[in-house]
Amino acid sequence: MTAMPMPPPSADRSPAEPLPADTLPADTLDDLERALAFLGRIQEASQRKRGYPLERALYLLLGRIVEGEGLTISHLAQALLLDESTVTRQVATLGQAGLVEKRPNPADRRSLLVAATATGRDQHTAMRALRLERIGLLFAPWSESDREVFRHLLGRYIDDATARINDPTI
Fold it and tell me: The CATH number of the domain where 60 resides is what?
């Protein structure tokens, strides 16, 4: 099977120029709404059944901290589309578990930087390996072409939704 060429994310349309929702077939919208809602449910169920060492929200936060090393609460909140108060509570939980530490911000003494500890990096690496193994098993039956198309479209959806998160019409 020949791989389908991947257009750049903005080749079909610009996120700044969306199609009106009423031009899309109702059954398509219904299917997409149900699929997106159920995707969240699948993630929650997987988390419970797999017994991962970190809940999904903490895993995502720790991953961002591991990638960025030395980030402010404000930066983390913005990057993860969360309120600062939520990130503060989650960082406290990670700190109590010995996975992150706070240190003074040399650029601004009024703020602190959050960094992963060696234990935090190790735990994130271990959980990531478990998650990647599971994802690999789920997608193994798919053709390479199907995996690439899905990866592209899911990435596009995430990029578009993130770019328009503050749009009150969505």
Answer: 1.10.10.10
Structure tokens at 128: 């990531």
Q: What is the domain range of residue 123?
A: 52-163
Would you say residue 10 has pLDDT above 70? Answer: no
Cα–Cα nearest to 64, from 52, 51, 48, 81: 81
pTM to 2 decimals? 0.77
Name the domain count of the chain. 1
In a domain, 142, yes or no: yes
89 is a domain residue: yes
| Buried/exposed code over 57-77 (b: 16+ C-beta within 10 A; e: otherwise) | ebbebbbbbbebeebbbebbb
Residue 136: count other Cβ atoms within 10 Å of its Cβ. 9
- Helix segments in 51-143, DSSP class H: 56-68, 73-80, 84-96, 118-139
H/E run at residue 109:
none
Is the CB of residue 83 less than 8 Å from the CB of residue 73? Answer: no
Please report whether residue 38 resides in a domain: no
Task: Determine, yes or no, domain membership for 91.
Answer: yes
- pLDDT of 5 strictly over 60: no
Q: Extract the tokens encoding 103.
A: 């240190």
